[in-house]
Amino acid sequence: MPGPTRRAALSLAATTLAAPALAQGRFPDRPVRLIIPWPPGGSADAQLRSLAELAGRTLGQPVVAENRAGASGTLGAQFLTTQARPDGYALAQMHLSVIRRPFLVRNPPWDPVQDFTHIIGLTGWLFGIVVKADGPIKSWADYIAYAKAHPGRLTYATSGIATTNHLTMEELSAKEGVELTHVPYRASNEAAVSVASGEVMSVADSSAWAPLVDSGALRLICVWTAERSPRFPQAPTLKELGHDMVGTSPYGIAGPKGMDPGVVRSLHEAFKAALFDSANAAVRAQFDMPLEYYDPEAYRDFVARRAAYERTMAERLNLRID
């Protein structure tokens, strides 16, 4: 039987070469998973679920939010680095605990820069320092004056050791040359209540204290955002107080390392549109969450800078969790 003509052979070859591309189709052709490494109901959960719903409309496929709480919020990162394929269908929240963890343990589970594909920076939280409203401290100047006059007696509560708020307070106390006493709590709202009851003198944390400030039980003496908070415009920023510092614990979205740049671009554009949508802006406003947008390159650069900072602070404070 005669073999195929040259034209037929070329046609067959072209069909064969085109088959993988046709099989791949456009991205996405099925739902995308977004792992939220916290229990349902918190501010990050609400913001990311809103983002997922909005991004799914742009992508033409659902973005399915999946809660995987535990391990200090690192189960999403564990999944990306050990199980997920770099095809764009498995994503997770990238937050500072993921960046920080390698510098707190003897056997680092990942490199926060090299072992992920950084897709977009999103938002953070409103942090600040609050004191009892009817106490002797009325301002940041009073806070530092008290600390200098009573070394080690000014206590501050946070949501735990090696958290963003703890590290920021360590940096601030070093810059001001004062000795403060750290009192870690398990929950931010418990810490705020403890200040109102007089158990500790101040709390440095995200805005779980806001209702008590609104009620007049607590006084906000500074915020850590780049600009003054629209909700609490009377409180100065750290920059206004002489410290070139911003502390919002920003987070974003990442995927496994090695993702296709075209897929990254598609995901980034969908999540960016969702972030700037009025519906997501309303969720952020509800929880006093400042905008911290980064494109993929800028977000990777942010993670690299933050990883260097986290390494330095872990070494300086001799922080270990294992």
Detailed description of the structure:
The strands form 2 sheets. The protein has a 6-stranded mixed β-sheet with strand order 2-1-3-10-4-11, with helices on both faces. Strands 7-6-8-5-9 form a 5-stranded mixed β-sheet. The chain starts with 5 loop residues before the first helix and ends in a 5-residue tail after the last helix. The protein is α/β, with parallel strands linked by helices. Strand 6 (155-158), helix 6 and strand 7 (181-184) form a beta-alpha-beta unit. It has 11 helices and 11 strands. It has helices at residues 6-24, 43-59, 75-82, 96-100, 140-149, 164-176, 188-197, 210-215, 261-275, 278-286, 296-317, and strands at 32-36, 63-67, 90-94, 116-123, 127-132, 155-158, 181-184, 202-206, 218-223, 251-256, 291-294. Helix 2 crosses helix 9 (261-275). The chain has 2 domains: 32-124 and 250-317, 3-Layer(aba) Sandwich (D-Maltodextrin-Binding Protein, domain 2), CATH 3.40.190.150; 127-223, Periplasmic binding protein-like II (D-Maltodextrin-Binding Protein, domain 2, 3-Layer(aba) Sandwich). Helix content is 42%, strand content 18%. Keywords: Signal. Residues 1-23 form the signal peptide.
Write the layout of secondary structure elements.
Layout: H1 6-24, E1 32-36, H2 43-59, E2 63-67, H3 75-82, E3 90-94, H4 96-100, E4 116-123, E5 127-132, H5 140-149, E6 155-158, H6 164-176, E7 181-184, H7 188-197, E8 202-206, H8 210-215, E9 218-223, E10 251-256, H9 261-275, H10 278-286, E11 291-294, H11 296-317
Parallel strand pairs: 1-2, 1-3, 6-7, 6-8
Antiparallel strand pairs: 3-10, 4-10, 4-11, 5-8, 5-9
InterPro entries: BUG, Bug_dom1
Signal peptide: 1-23
Protein name: Tripartite tricarboxylate transporter substrate binding protein
